[in-house]
Amino acid sequence: MLQTILITLHNLTRWLVLIFGALAVARAFAGWLGKKGWQKADDRAGMLFTGMLDLQLLLGLALYFTSPFMQPIFRDFGVAMAGTSLRFFGVVHAGGMLLAILIAHAARSLSRKAASDPLKHQRSAIGFGLALLIVAILIPWMRPLLQFFGLLTV
After folding, report:
1. Is 148 helix (H, G, I), strand (E, B) or coil?
2. By CB count within 10 A, which of 45, 76, 92, 112 is most buried?
């Protein structure tokens, strides 16, 4: 039951990460290329993106350490790395997503500290764009796109 809840929440949060990430990237590029002033909504978009990434990280860590699927990795890391699926979820997905979160947080921090509005937008656009790209690449698209507590799988 716990696994079903965690997978459902992790799956639903994926869509929030993508939506808020796209919003943050769009606002950042529009501000940078359009030479617009930095607005409270620009900061809020970055905050929502990084906040959803943080929530996704917590759910992912809960899955990582409680899922029976991950137990072979903890028993014998070398053998687990021979399997494509275990290697993807145990190392590539987890490590890559952590990198994306670190980049997004660095971009938000650097953009907030920037001396000018164009620099704030530029740092946000590059950092959030890179983080969102990594997230999009490392989402396991082969899994169901929508899972709802084991009742609905699309």
Report:
1. strand
2. 45
Separation in Å, CA 13 to CA 22, 58, 136: 14, 11, 13
Structural element, H or E, at residue 147 = strand 147-148
Contact between residue 125 and residue 108 where contact means Cβ atoms under 8 Å apart: no
- Please give the model's pTM, rounded to 2 decimal places: 0.89
Residue type, 116: S
Structure tokens at 61: 């860590």
Q: Which amino acid is at 38?
A: W
Residue (of 69, 65, 46, 17) closest to 120 by Cα position: 46
pLDDT tens string 132-154: 999 999 999 877 777 766 666 65
Q: What is d(CA 102, CA 123) in angstroms, rounded to the nearest whole number? A: 14
| Contact status, residue 103 vs residue 94, Cβ threshold 8 Å | no
The closest alpha carbon to 1, from 153, 150, 154, belongs to: 150
Residue 72 CA: distances (Å) to CA of 6, 77, 80, 85, 87? 19, 7, 6, 11, 11
How far, in Å, CA of 126 to CA of 105, rounded? 12
